[in-house]
Amino acid sequence: MAxxxxxxxxxxxxxxxxxxxxxxxxxxxxxxxRVDIWAFGTGQQYTAHQSTxxxxxxxIEGVTMVQSKFGNGGRMVPVLYYAxxxxxxxxxxxxxxxxxxxxxLKLMNEEELTAPAFLALNPQHTVPTLDxxxxxxxxxxxxxxxxASAYGNEADLYPRDYCARAVVDQRLQFDLGTFxxxxxxxxxxxxxxxxxxxxxxKAKLExxxxxxxxxxxxxxxxxxxxxxxxxxxxxxxxxxxxxxxFDLGAFPRVCAWFAKCKKELMPFGYExxxxxxxxxxxxxxxxxxxx
Length: 291
Description:
By secondary structure, this protein is an alpha+beta fold. The protein contains 11 helices and 11 strands. The protein is globular, with a radius of gyration of 23 Å.
C-alpha cells in the first residue's frame, strides 16, 4: 500500500499544497501492511509498520508533520521525556547529537511527571524516559546503551566485543551505583533543602574519585583506549561536581581525562546541553547553601 503525496499536488488539491496542507486527508491509518509515503517536495521515503496512526489535524496538516514523525532512516522518531538541568538527561542528549539521532523532546515539569499518562509509561515518574515505538526505557545508562546499539555507527562507542563491552558496562554501573550516587548523597540535600554539607559524605565522594583515578591508570579513556558511552556518563557526573566547585586537584588523571572529554564532546552540545544544565544546578546549590 503506497500513498504518493506528490500525485495529490495536481488538480483539485493544488491549492491545498500551496499552503502546505492536505485538506483531503483527515486521518491516515497505517495498517499492518507496509506503507510508503513519498513526502511532497523532498524526494524522501518514510516507512511505517504495524498499527501506527498519523492524524493530520482537523482535516488540515502539512506534509511537514508527516516528515517530523518519520526520520532516522524511515523509523518513527524516538520520544525523550526530559528535564534540561538533569545530569542523566544531559548525557542522553549529547549521545543523540553525537550519533546524529533526531529525538522528539518532551520537556517535563513536576506536575507532568505524576500525570496518569506519564505514570502509565514510567511508574517511577523519572526522567529521562525514552519511548521508541512502544519500547519504553528509563535509567539514562540503559538508554545510552540502547541508543548506541540501535542507532550508533561508531564501532568503539559501545563495542560489540563482549569483553570490551563488559568494561564499558562496569564503568556505567560504577557511575550509577557508586560515583554519581555519592555526588547526589553529598550535594543534593543542600541543593534541594538547604542542608549543611556533611564531611563524611565528602570523604565518600573523594573515595569514589580515588577509585576512578586508579581505573584511568590503565586506559586512555574511562573504559579503554577509545571514547565510549561510559565517558559521556562519567563526564557529566564529573562536570557537575566541577560546577559545584569541588576541588579535583588531588586527582590528576581525572582532571586530564575530564579535559579530553570536554574537547571530545564540544561539537555535540557540551556547552549548550551539559555546561548550561550544570550551571543551573550550581546556581541553585549556591543559593540554597547561603540560607
